[in-house]
């Protein structure tokens, strides 16, 4: 699917509006991603309880953490091209409905084996990120697409912080009603599954694929070509041939991969290393995820501002700076000897991590407009490859501190991949023309 710069793309973000298809897609995409992220990591803050109930070993917990992000790699590669073929609306609704099944399955698990199985399947809903980024990329013009992508993903990502803080509170409320704790954590895990089904209904009702309508309607009307099933395959193959895609695949592994790895382990880390209670550890861990409320958007906003003066190369340099900051912050976090210093260090590298995620997808729409689904899917999958690699590193490390230290070194070195993302003069000229067109359209709309 070629995503061109159309006059119907939004040239501004009217944050408190729900009246246009662009803003409905913006708000529904981040809400859907928030709910998916909440469900994806809902079990993480309850792991100390689950560990005791199933008698889990260190290796078994590591396996569960790896499983939670492993299958997402495959599904992210698939859903990007599916968006090209069937549109983001149908793809998102299907993922929400099917993804709710393993969420309910986790709550019903009776053994380590069944818990691991459903935790593996639940990772599929992490692919929701790719659909969110695809949908906003289709709806917004080049002058604001970086901000739109970063804000929608950032607010959605904050579901990871919300689940760290809210799941222990939901469990507490259930226990206060007289339910045994062994049953309470299972009932608590039903909540995100129900929310996914409600969100699926709302997404179908309030959104459309593009400013002009659904892809199926546009194809039937002859407004876009009916390329058949080949479109998904062609999008993926074209994206695979672009070296910039693989550079951002690695950088996204270094930022988003670290982010979801931290979501999986940080609550247990605070309990085991500093003796915090489940509730206090959840609040400390939640602060990391809640940075996404503004930090990811900030990364995209700054990228858009830099692009006005420095062009596409400026976006790459900005991403490089953020990943270096993340790596150095991780090294600090790995050596923190007190809760206070650990939280400060976590928030410091977390700020760079979330901003780097936003800066990555502020650059993604400009890689290849003719293969947006494939590009978004491959780069998104890189985040989960990074998380899986971090999970295996954790399994092989003597302790969490060693794992974080090595991770900090790897992230810092990966920043060089951001600098390697460069564009031809012809590519820059084309993007500049599209950018100036969007600026003119916005000036006319304001006038």
From TrEMBL:
UniProt GO cellular component terms = membrane
UniProt GO MF annotations: nitrate transmembrane transporter activity
Positions of transmembrane segments: 30-50, 62-79, 91-109, 115-134, 155-177, 183-204, 245-270, 276-295, 316-333, 339-364, 371-392, 404-423
**Classification via InterPro entries:** MFS, MFS_dom, MFS_trans_sf, NO3_transporter
Name the keywords, alphabetized. Answer: Membrane, Nitrate assimilation, Transmembrane, Transmembrane helix
Where does the record place it? Membrane
Query: Gene3D superfamilies this protein is in?
Result: MFS general substrate transporter like domains (1.20.1250.20)
**Membrane-related topology note:** Multi-pass membrane protein
| Superkingdom as given in the UniProt entry | Bacteria
Does the entry feature the keyword Transmembrane helix, yes or no? yes
Which residue intervals define the domain Major facilitator superfamily (MFS) profile in the entry? 25-426
Q: Name one GO biological process term.
A: nitrate assimilation
Pfam families this protein is in? MFS_1
Per the record, the similarity remark reads: Belongs to the major facilitator superfamily. Nitrate/nitrite porter (TC 2.A.1.8) family.
Q: By what name is this protein known?
A: High affinity nitrate transporter transmembrane protein
Q: Which organism is it from?
A: Hydrocarboniphaga effusa AP103
């Amino acid at each position: 699917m070629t995503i061109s710069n159309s006059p119907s793309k939004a040239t501004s973000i009217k944050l408190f509006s729900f009246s246009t298809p662009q803003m409905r897609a913006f708000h529904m995409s981040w809400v859907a991603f928030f709910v998916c992220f909440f469900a994806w990591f809902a079990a993480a803050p309850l792991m100390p309880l689950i560990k005791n109930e199933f008698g889990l070993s260190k290796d078994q917990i590591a396996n569960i953490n790896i499983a939670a992000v492993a299958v997402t790699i495959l599904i992210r590669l698939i859903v990007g091209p599916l968006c090209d073929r069937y549109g983001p609306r149908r793809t998102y609704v299907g993922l929400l409905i099917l993804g709710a099944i393993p969420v309910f399955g986790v709550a019903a698990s009776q053994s380590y084996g069944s818990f691991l199985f459903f935790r593996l399947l639940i990772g599929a809903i992490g692919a929701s990120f790719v659909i969110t980024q695809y949908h906003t990329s289709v709806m917004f013009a080049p002058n604001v697409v970086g901000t739109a992508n970063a804000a929608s993903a950032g607010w959605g990502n904050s579901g990871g912080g919300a689940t760290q803080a809210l799941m222990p509170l939901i469990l507490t409320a259930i226990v206060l009603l007289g339910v045994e704790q062994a049953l309470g954590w299972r009932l608590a895990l039903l909540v995100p599954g129900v929310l996914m089904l409600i969100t699926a209904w709302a997404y179908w009702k309030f959104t459309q694929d593009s400013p002009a309508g659904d892809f199926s309607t546009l194809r039937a009307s002859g407004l876009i070509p009916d390329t058949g099933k080949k479109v998904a395959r062609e999008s993926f193959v074209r994206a695979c041939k672009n070296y910039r895609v693989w550079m951002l695949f690695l950088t996204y592994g270094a930022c988003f991969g670290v982010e979801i790895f931290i979501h999986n382990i940080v609550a247990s880390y605070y309990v085991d290393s500093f003796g915090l209670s489940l509730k206090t550890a959840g609040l400390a861990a939640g602060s990391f995820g809640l940075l996404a409320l503004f930090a990811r958007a900030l990364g995209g906003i700054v990228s858009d501002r830099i692009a006005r003066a420095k062009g596409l190369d400026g976006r790459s340099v900005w991403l490089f700076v953020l990943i270096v900051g993340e790596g150095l912050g991780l090294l600090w976090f790995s050596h923190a000897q007190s809760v206070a210093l650990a939280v400060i260090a976590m928030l410091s590298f977390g700020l760079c991590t979330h901003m780097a995620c936003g800066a990555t997808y502020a650059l993604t729409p400009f890689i290849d407009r003719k293969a947006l689904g494939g590009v978004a899917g491959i780069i998104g999958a890189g985040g989960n490859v990074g998380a899986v690699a971090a999970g295996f590193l954790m399994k092989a490390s003597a302790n969490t501190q060693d794992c974080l230290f090595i991770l900090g070194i790897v992230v810092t070195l990966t920043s060089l991949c951001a600098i390697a993302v460069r564009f031809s003069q012809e590519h820059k000229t084309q993007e500049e023309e599209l950018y100036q067109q969007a600026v003119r359209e916005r000036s006319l709309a304001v006038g």
